[in-house]
């Protein structure tokens, strides 16, 4: 029997609502504001199966600097896409930034609006 269930990924950021809105649009997941939390301190996005990503406000947030390790990324999100060019245009329109360092041909590295690296991966 498992000790725990429903693992959740939590990303620190300066604006949880803005970051949840970004990932909600990227994944077509529902943005959930939590009334029991001070507005803007915690929110999440979820799909119909219960998978979710959470976003937590951090004062004086410093985004990761990748690939340098002065401020390491510590984690990142990969998402599968059918067409890299179409997906790139869509995430840029949502507010992502394409990273200058692109080490592969089957994936592309971007920064979300809070500076977390994420990859679009051709499946």
UniProtKB/TrEMBL annotation:
InterPro entries assigned to the protein according to its UniProt record, in alphabetical order: Glyas_Bleomycin-R_OHBP_Dase, Glyoxalase_6
Residues covered by the Glyoxalase-like domain: 9-121
Any Pfam family the entry gives: Glyoxalase_6
Superkingdom in the source lineage: Bacteria
Coiled-coil intervals: none
Annotated signal peptide: none
Protein's name according to its UniProt entry: VOC family protein
Organism of this sequence: Arthrobacter yangruifuii
């Amino acid at each position: 029997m498992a000790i725990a269930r429903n693992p959740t990924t939590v990303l620190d950021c300066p604006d949880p609502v803005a970051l949840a809105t970004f990932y909600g649009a990227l994944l077509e997941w529902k943005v959930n504001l939590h009334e029991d939390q001070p507005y803007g301190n915690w929110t999440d996005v979820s799909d119909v199966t219960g998978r979710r990503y959470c976003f937590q406000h951090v004062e004086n947030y410093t985004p990761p600097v990748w690939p340098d390790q002065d401020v390491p990324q510590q984690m990142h999100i990969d998402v599968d896409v059918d067409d890299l060019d179409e997906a790139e245009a869509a995430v840029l329109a949502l507010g992502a930034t394409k990273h200058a360092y692109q080490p592969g041909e089957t994936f592309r590295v971007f920064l979300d609006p809070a500076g977390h690296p994420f990859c679009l991966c051709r499946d």
